From TrEMBL:
Domain of life: Bacteria
Domain DUF3857: 67-189
Pfam families: DUF3857, Transglut_core
InterPro entries associated with the record: DUF3857, Papain-like_cys_pep_sf, Transglutaminase-like
Protein source organism: Flavobacterium rhizophilum
Protein name, as recorded: DUF3857 domain-containing protein
Transglutaminase-like domain mapped to chain residues: 301-375
Length: 649
């Protein structure tokens, strides 16, 4: 035991001493290392990473400089991908961000000596992602198993309102990471620290001087340094929305700034100021006020319609049918609502601000809602830059209804899944605001009705009818709408397994309802052993694997929306057979009713009835519920595995 303890501390020391090495100081010990001491399964590891963000004056204007240097160890061939380094940045033809790689090298141990392969000048290249987004890329040469790579790059940004985010945790283990922020007291930033692990923090205040326009300015600068050692690789978990929400990070949101003439500007640090900023902007507030381009069309559509719910439905469906989303996100219109309307295509802001304007024109109380999509992550502060999407909210009969016309399969209060990310903010043109909960609370339902006949050879044939409502209906349409029946059936067969489908009928009857029916022939769900038939009560709907498969849970569970599935099976057993035994009925509920499960069987004559109801009653729950949910699912799987036993008489 003593030897093991000593070995453990020796391994730890190998890791933490990495902080003593800077870029260009690769050691033979690092190159000889065959696997990571604390994570032998790792394909690569960050040995050392250091970042520094500071301010400087450039052409009489403040800019933010971020310097990053990284040393990374490659253990396996799968780790070669870390030799491809990508740095995204915001591009504008004039006064945009810039990225410069100052050095990049690969180190290998050749005949006991360290061999260095440097990136040649001009080996970096730039990819254009969109009109405003680019990626600077390098591909390090001579990367092998055992290599150590190093690189250093500098990002220069003129956008003091867009402070760079810093992530400490990566998909590889991190031996040592350090990040320093130097902020002049001319600027006030709100800090967002997401920490599932303990960071070491140190703060200093220093006096600084700069010369601007031949004049000396003096100010205090706050230096904040964060360090952490032996950080495990970030590993995603089941039922997680955006992994970046849970990685260890620090972010900053600008609240106020004083320019070089000592003039102070208050930024969007409250929702009142956000509302005012947006409504005062030509590309947001003014676009909602425009009506001339659609006036005649909407007049014709709602002529003679007095019911507000009917008006809402008519206008919403009109926008969905007319407009195609061009996948562009953001709070501001790109080309304007009129051009988008004429071209029948636009950004999320253009489509949903247009929708808001039309609903107002129709006499409804409609307002825009800004939100951060799941891909964009959680938004913590009142800041325009934290939000990337616009939808609409309309109040009818004292009920608030959320609308997003960028998704053709959405319906009132049934938003695309990307929108379901905590809370959004409803902004009125009188600079008032209101928080809007985006996570659904109503159960979406799947109802399955099966009438089946069991043959003596174990074949099960029958008819299946299924109804989907609300989010379940929308998701079914997203996956299966507008595809030929043969591909539709092939997808269902692939999902079910050991089943042949024919005579498919697909009826998306209403906006929030879908009906599907088909005949099926199932093999393998009734096993014949001598004079006994062992029948799976749920046939091809039987679940066999526990979806809660982690030993421990760190992060919240995102079920997206509450849902319930109800199975009603009626089996006709073969002539000459009788029921010998059936699973006992059971009713289960997890802690606080997060999941409910009911399983009940009965028989009469030559028929068996099976009822199974499984409900997931919340959109999201905390990790403290994980163990009870895992145990609960284990019990439901055990019950589903039990067989109906039929015996030949």
């Amino acid at each position: 035991m003593k030897k093991i303890t000593i070995l453990f501390f020796l391994l730890i020391s190998l890791v933490v001493t990495a902080k003593d090495y800077g870029v260009g100081k690769v050691s033979k010990e690092e190159l000889m290392e065959k696997e990571h001491p604390l994570d032998p399964s790792a394909d690569a590891a960050i040995l050392y990473k250091k970042g520094n963000t500071h301010f400087k004056i450039d052409n009489d204007k403040w800019v933010i400089i971020t310097e990053v240097e990284v040393r990374l160890k490659i253990y396996t061939k799968k780790g070669y991908k870390y030799g491809n380094v990508n740095v995204p940045y915001y591009y504008k033809r004039v006064n945009g961000e810039s990225v410069t790689f100052e050095e990049a090298s690969t180190y290998n141990l050749v005949n006991g000596e360290i061999e260095k392969t440097s990136l040649k000048k001009g080996d970096d290249h730039t990819d254009e992602v969109s009109s405003t987004r680019r990626i600077k890329k390098i591909i390090l040469q001579d990367v092998k198993e055992g290599s150590v790579i190093e690189y250093k790059y500098v990002v220069k940004s003129p956008y003091i309102h867009s402070f760079p985010d810093w992530y400490f945790q990566e998909k590889t283990p991190v031996n040592y990471i350090e990040y320093t922020v130097n902020i002049p007291q001319l600027f006030t930033y709100n800090r967002i620290l997401n920490s599932y692990y303990e960071l070491k923090e140190e703060t200093e205040v220093n006096r600084k001087s700069l010369y601007v326009r031949s004049a000396k300015i003096t100010f205090q600068e706050i230096t904040q340094t964060y360090t952490i050692e032996n950080l495990p690789a970030f590993k995603t978990e089941s039922y997680i929305d955006n992994p970046d929400n849970y990685r260890l990070y620090v972010k900053h949101e600008l609240a106020s700034a004083r320019d070089l003439d000592e003039k102070e500007t208050k930024y969007t640090s409250s929702w009142e100021s956000v509302a005012k900023t947006l409504y005062d902007d030509d590309d947001f507030g003014r676009e909602i006020k425009k009506t001339s381009y659609f006036k005649d069309d909407i007049d014709a559509l709602i002529k003679g319609v007095d019911d507000d719910n009917e008006k809402l439905t008519i206008v919403f469906n009109y926008v969905k049918d007319r407009m195609a989303w061009n996948e562009k996100r953001g709070l501001y219109c790109v080309d304007g609502v009129k051009k988008a309307y004429d071209e029948r295509s636009g950004s999320c802001a253009e489509i949903n601000l247009m929708l808001t304007a039309m609903l107002r024109y129709a006499g409804l109380n409609a307002n825009p809602v800004v939100l951060s999509t799941k891909d964009n992550g959680f938004a913590t502060y009142a800041s325009i830059n934290s939000y990337d999407f616009v939808i609409s909210a309309v109040e009818v009969n004292d009920k608030q209804i959320l609308l997003d016309a960028t998704e053709s399969f959405s319906s009132p209060d049934i938003l695309p899944v990307r929108d379901l990310n905590g809370s959004g903010w409803l902004l009125s043109d009188n600079n008032t605001w209101k928080e809007v909960k985006l996570d659904p609370v109503k159960l979406s339902r799947e109802m399955v009705f099966v009438n089946a006949k069991v043959s003596a050879d174990g074949t099960v044939t029958g008819k299946l009818n299924c109804k989907y409502s609300d989010y379940d209906a929308m998701m079914y349409k997203v996956y299966f709408d507008n595809i030929p029946d043969d591909k539709h059936m092939a997808k269902l067969e692939n999902a079910m397994g050991n089943i042949e489908i024919s005579n498919l009928e697909y009826k998306p009857d209403e906006e929030s309802l879908v009906q599907v029916s088909y005949d099926f022939n199932s093999v393998g769900h009734a096993e014949v052993v001598g004079d006994i038939i062992y029948l799976s009560p749920l046939l091809f709907y039987t679940e066999t694997e526990n979806s809660f498969n982690e030993e421990k849970r760190l992060y919240s569970l995102d079920f997206v929306y509450p849902s319930q599935v109800r199975y009603n099976f009626v089996f006709t057993i073969p002539e000459g057979y009788a029921v010998e035994s059936m699973p006992e009925p059971i009713r289960l509920s997890s802690v606080d009713g997060i999941i409910d499960f009911t399983f009940r069987l009965s028989s009469s004559g030559n028929q068996i009835q099976v009822l199974c109801i499984s409900a997931q009653n919340y959109s999201t729950v905390g990790p403290e519920y994980y163990e009870s949910l895992k145990e609960m699912e284990g019990l439901t799987l055990k019950k589903q595995a039990e067989k109906i036993v039929l015996k030949k008489i």
